Amino acid sequence: MIKVAVCGALGKMGKEVVQTVESCPDTELAAKIDIAGAEFRTIEEAHKSCQIDILVDFTQPKSIFENAKYCLNNGIKIVIGTTGLTDAQIMELNTLSKEKNTGCLIAPNFSTGAVLMMMFARQASKYFDNAEIIELHHNQKKDAPSGTAIKTAAMMAEVKEDFTNGNCPETETIKGARGGNSYSNIHIHSVRMPGYIASQEVIFGSSGQIMTIRHDSMDRKCYMQGVMLAIKHIYENNDFIYGLDNIM
User: Fold this and answer.
1) Catalytic positions, written as ranges
2) Contact of 183 with 153, CB cutoff 8 Å
3) Domains of the chain
């Protein structure tokens, strides 16, 4: 039986993870952790009282890095769904995971459909020289662009060095109108609007054609299949994984 603690257990994603862990025959809910007043307020408190094999973290960008370091330094495997980690922080967690021989899986998106979208975008990048990303989320999401958009751009950049082929010199009359310029000059546009959960479009263009790859999350339950894939993989392995696409 895999003993799973959930950090951010009172949040919208945390509640879904708690319910999923409790209903799975292979997992047992070891602890609910949340600063808002769950069973435990901190990981340290839970660790002193419970056996924890894996901690699933859906908290805030400002806390995730320290949460992850505590887990890895104390032999707790961690599955991270919180976005906002910098490239430097991800590299540090990679190093720490290997030093401590403790598994760590970071997934910018746990929806299997969204991960397939990212994989399809990488494949399409071989055949298009121009591409941009539009990501749309609810207006309570604090980081922009989304981790999914950043990971998508990074995967596309593995295939091609520049996605602005033939573009004319540009002048923004309103700063930010062209979005953020990311890997391989892929422009990312972030929309924050009530009514959305999480959506993303990857738009490819070439002479005479446009292709759009889009994924929409309608309900947070769509992430749970990916969360359980991550839990079961990291329970059996001590590797460092960035992106659910690496275990699908």
Assistant:
1) 137, 141
2) yes
3) 2-106+221-246 (3.40.50.720), 112-217 (3.30.360.10)
Residue owning tokens 């991960």? 115
CA dist 151 and 120 (Å) reads: 13
Q: For 24-41, what is the HEC assignment?
A: CCCEEEEEEECCCCCCEC
Neighbouring CB atoms inside 10 A of 68's CB total 26
Two tokens at 41?
Answer: 């307020």
Residues in the chain predicted with pLDDT less than 70, given as ranges, are none
Give pTM, 2 decimals: 0.81
Helices (H), the chain: 12-23, 43-49, 61-73, 87-100, 112-124, 147-157, 224-236
Joined together, the tokens standing for residue 62 give: 């400002």
Secondary structure (DSSP) of 148-166: HHHHHHHHHHTT-S-SBTT
Residue showing tokens 């340290």: 44
Residues 6+ apart with CB under 8 A from 203: 131, 132, 133, 134, 210, 211, 212
Alpha-carbon gap, residue 50 to 221, rounded angstroms: 27
Question: What's the confidence (pLDDT) of residue 83?
Answer: 84
What is the spatial distance between Cα 232 and Cα 237, in angstroms, rounded to a whole number? 9
Cα–Cα–Cα angle for 237, 233, 41, rounded to 5 degrees: 95
Tell which residue, 166, 199, 162, has the closest CA to residue 181.
162
pLDDT tens string 173-218: 999 999 999 999 999 999 999 999 999 999 999 999 999 999 999 9
pLDDT the model gives residue 37:
85
Cα dihedral sign, 92-238-64-215: positive
